[in-house]
Amino acid sequence: MSALRQKIYRAMQRRIAPTLRYSQTLYEETLGPHVTPQTRWLDLGCGHQILPPWRLAAEHQLRARASLVAGLDGELDSLRHHQTVQLRVRGYNEALPFRAESFNLVTANMVLEHLAKPEGCLREVSRILMPGGLFLCHTPNVWGYPTIASRLVPDAVKRSLIRALDGREEHDVFTTHYRANSGRALVGLARTAGLRVEKIRMIATAAVFANVSPLALFELLWIRLLLTKPFATMRPDIIAILRKPT
After folding, report:
1. Of 100, 155, 210, 235, which one's alpha carbon is 20 to 30 angstroms from that of 218?
2. What class does CATH assign to 34-206+231-243?
């Protein structure tokens, strides 16, 4: 986004939805208190980074606080280019290559929407978590307007839009299924996996069309409505915390 467009968007956001915050910022703030010197942490679908690229320094600091940090991804190229996690493993979420009770924190930042069999992944997460350990995830809400639009758009068009609006290249765009992407789905999956739901939070985030000022105006008006309590279930993203019972 150009500096001028960014300035225009921020001015509109301050006027229309002043309390709006970026979902990745909320995820980082939720994650931070759970990373301590006693933390043995696995990041699922770690990709190129744990946090957004512009938070690289904060990511280094966060990783340094934990006693152990591992990253798992199915894409070898992503693992090779990861800049903070040293213990990187190629593997798949439905068959995690770790011993039982190896970690007390497992995270998944924008990963659950890509799972064809989320029940298998959650069972594996439960297996590798220590008693009392946490699973923290950040994922799109299936009832959020970006997800609904995404499911209606053909894949070829979707890839072009993502490149234009989000700056991601085609090799960083993966198939989505949205089988764990509602509060109800997460509660059911947690129960099946033997995990307890500690918190499910529906959150709004920055406008998809932030760099297209006329569209951003109308989107921000809709987001302002989503920030009210009656429309909470339609907010675009979810942050959930699940705990393995002691």
Report:
1. 155
2. alpha beta
